Amino acid sequence: MKLNIAILPGDGIGPEVMEQGVAVMNAVAARFGHEFEYHEAICGAHAIDEVGDPFPDATFQVCMDADAVLFAAVGDPRFDNNPTIKVRPETGLLAMRKKLGLYANVRPVETFDCLLHMSPLKEHLIKGADFVVIRELTGGMYFGEKYQDNDKAYDTDIYTRPEIERILKVGFECARSRRHHLTVVDKANVLASSRLWRQIAKEMEPQYPDVTTDYMFIDNAAMRVLTEPRFFDVIVTENTFGDILTDETSCITGSMGLQPSSSLGEHTPLFEPVHGSWPQAAGKNLANPIAQILSAAMLLEHFGLKAEGKCIRDAVTASLDANVRTPEIQVEGGKHYGTSEVGQWIVDYIKG
Ligand code: IPM
Ligand code: MN
Questions:
Q1: Per-residue pLDDT at 83
Q2: Is residue 182 within 8 Å of 171, Cβ to Cβ?
Q3: Quick one: pLDDT at residue 332?
Q4: What is the dihedral of CA 77, 80, 86, 91, to 10 degrees?
Q5: Contact 155/141 with Cβ under 8 angstroms?
Q6: 35, 3 in Cβ contact below 8 A?
Q7: CATH homologous superfamily of domain 1-102+266-352?
Q8: Nearest ligand atom owner, CA of 71
Q9: Which terminus in the chain has less CB density within 10 A, N or C?
Q10: Which atom of ligand 1 is found nearest the CA of 89?
């Protein structure tokens, strides 16, 4: 298969984990006879420094012309904690989501047997947990009308019927492709936007008689993912709830550095690790490249390349089993491996 892939390394640890993601894609291309062409483009703080825009038009064009985008992370402490700054790396991320129409953010939560003991949860709770959070990504408070002066500020949590229907459809269909269980997470006891979500989900339920649908308030869901993570198969929720819930779910499997994601919608699909730019670790060869590498696996699977995706996943599991691990998940007293060593080990494994 020929694929044209836009590469957006971004800021912080982005470039170094991306290097490993691309190396793994190349190893897969060589082994399975594919042709992957890459087009790198700037974004985030990096792009603000170079051209004054965190998601420049040229980068947007590279993304639009590509079959898929492999993205790493954006963010820089220079822009944090300063409410007066107007242009921030995150503004670019939101522009990218909006312009590419990436309304469905898919964040799987998968466990690795050899890392169960690293979970902040008890092993018997987390063992076998395997679920997906589908977060609406282009609506709600993130994009609703905003206002701020010295005495008053607000954000509007607005959703329209078509926005809700299309993301619920992704949720129902994802459940259908898995264990047929969908949990709609909202705050319908308080918020009007949530009540519309729930109303529409109930209207859609009869179209999916093979899916068991239940409803849970976000505060309760935040507790249940910790007390009973195996309850869940597919969760679908709005933008802000999904943001918070997926930080929680990303760490219950042991390390945030292991969790990939995809964002799908109207234009080019995008694949990225759930972790951020971790600026403190930038350039230190410390960051775990696995979330980026698994994002590459999700990219290939999106195009039907199942064997290729499995090959990457097997290589990742083998590296963890072999204790070839970055510091945050290394066994006590074990040798630490760097970002590039872990990546190289996985590449070598794939080459066979
Ligand atoms: C995420 C991030 C972003 C978000 C930030 C960086 C704007 O936390 O992708 O979850 O809030 O969506
Ligand atoms: Mn987040």
A1: 76
A2: yes
A3: 83
A4: 80
A5: yes
A6: yes
A7: Isopropylmalate Dehydrogenase (3.40.718.10)
A8: 1
A9: C
A10: 6
2 is catalytic: no
- Size (the chain), residues: 352
Amino acid at 333: G
Kindly name the residue from 11, 53, 103, 142 that is annotated as catalytic: 142
Distance CA 233, CA 313 (A): 20
- Of 57, 80, 113, 219, the active-site residue reads 219
- Choose among 203, 223, 199, 207: nearest CA to 175: 207
pLDDT along the chain (352 residues), means of 10: 98 98 98 98 96 97 98 94 85 95 97 92 95 98 96 98 98 98 98 98 98 98 97 98 95 91 97 95 97 98 98 98 94 91 98 93
Residues of each domain in the chain carrying CATH 3.40.718.10: 1-102+266-352, 105-256
Name the token pair of 23: 């190396």
Predicted local distance difference test score (pLDDT) of residue 156: 98
- Tokens 């494994």 label which residue? 349
Question: What pLDDT score does 50 carry?
Answer: 96
Residue 24, both tokens: 């793994």
DSSP helix, strand, coil percent of the chain (3-state; round to 5): 50, 20, 35
Instruction: Give pLDDT, residue 155.
Output: 98
Determine contact, residues 25/289, Cβ cutoff 8 Å: no
pLDDT for the residue numbered 80? 84
At 249, the amino acid letter reads: T
The set of protein residues with a Cβ atom below 6 angstroms from ligand 1 is: 90, 93, 243
Question: Smallest Cα–Cα separation from 97: which of 269, 329, 232?
Answer: 269
Specify whether 214 is catalytic.
no
Whether the Cβ atoms of residue 237 and residue 168 lie closer than 8 Å to each other: no
